[in-house]
Structures are given as structure tokens and as C-alpha cells.
Amino acid sequence: MGNLINSATGSKPAQATMPLYKGRPDPVLQEALTKVSPQAQAKAKATATDFESMFLSSMFSQMTAGLKGDGPFGDTVGTGVWRSMLTDQYAKNFAKSGGVGISSEVYRSLILQQANHS
Q1: Are 29 and 36 a contacting pair, CB within 8 Å?
Q2: What pTM value is reported for the model?
């Protein structure tokens, strides 16, 4: 078997870029991706990321619910609104940068469902 890395460009050939599931090659997802359009794949990816962002936002808001702020504006009504916006942004950034693994599971499930219904 030849080297999977193309030594001239440093890139992987097309057949070596199989998706991973739990750290292992995922031929089931690879086959399902051939049955689902690129537009549907992009939509499923965005939906999965949004789902993880909502989950993380809920988790972060529960985590910070009992905190009181410091300083002159520390315990005002506005602090709660500001904190909810901040936790939403934290959640979106976490989800976009890989999150905690929820979006990859949701994405895989969405693709497999779409492939089975086509």
C-alpha cells in the first residue's frame, strides 16, 4: 500500500479522506454522503452546529444562573440580559470551533436519515 500523503503537495488523495466516526473510518457515512447532495450536506452541518450551540447555551445559562456581578452595575436587571447574550455568544463560538462532539453525532444522524429516504 502506498503512502496516503501525496509527497509533492502534502495533501491526501481523494480516496484517503474518509470521514471518521469515534476515531475510526466510517464507510457507512461515506456511502451515505454519496446519496445526499452537497447543499443538503451543508444544511445538515449548519443544523447540527446550531443544535449544539443551543445545547451549550442552555448549559452555560444554567452554569451562570446563580452568579452575581461585581462593581457598580453588578446586580442589576441589565446584568442578566448581558449575561444571557454573552453565554449565547460563548455557545456559538464553542460550537463553531468543534464543540463537545454533539454536532458531529447530529450531522451523522441527519445524513444517514436523508440517505435512507432517497
Answers
A1: no
A2: 0.70
